Amino acid sequence: MCVAVALPLSEFPRPVVEAHGLDARTHDRGEPEVRFHWRAQPPRLPVWWEGRLQVVRWGCRVRSAGHLPPTGWTWRASAEAGRWSHLEPEAVVIPAAFGMMGGVWFKVKEGMRGLLVRDRDGTPTAYVTCEPATRYYAVMTRCSCAPVLVGDVI
Q: What is the pLDDT of residues 16-30, one digit of tens each?
């Protein structure tokens, strides 16, 4: 899986930066980047949705919410098997230059796959799509599942 993503600050239109307070999530790795962590309050993810870059809620942490799964991830196999169909999911791309798992940042070429659903109030909520990790990814991150990358495998 992936517990954080980073994307260059220059990828975000200024109104999006201001609307979501992304300056507070900015770090410098030679170029300013915005980091989105699952443990951040509130957890957010960038997604390409409805033809534009948007920042939405990352998963659901409250088991009592009932309507949405209390996680930030989903298995590709469960999505393909239709287990999310009752939530009318939309496939989205999570743009990222880097992802992080097990304390290790790894390079992402084009982004990650995700699902976007709406909660009972209509709030868009994104989940990172995962699959069984390759041996390399599992050794590197100490995790048995990996994000589904767009056009790449680690």
A: 999 999 999 999 989
Among 43, 52, 59, residue whose Cα is nearest residue 115: 59
Which residue type is seen at 106? F
- Fill in the DSSP letter of residue 122: -
Average pLDDT rounded to a whole number, residues 126-138: 95
Cα–Cα distance for residue pair 88/118, rounded to 1 Å: 8
Q: Give 108-111 contacts, CB < 8 A, sequence gap 24+.
A: 108/5, 108/149, 108/152, 109/149, 109/150, 109/151, 109/152, 110/149, 110/150, 110/151, 110/152, 111/48, 111/149, 111/150
User: What are the helix (H) ranges across 35-103?
Assistant: 76-80
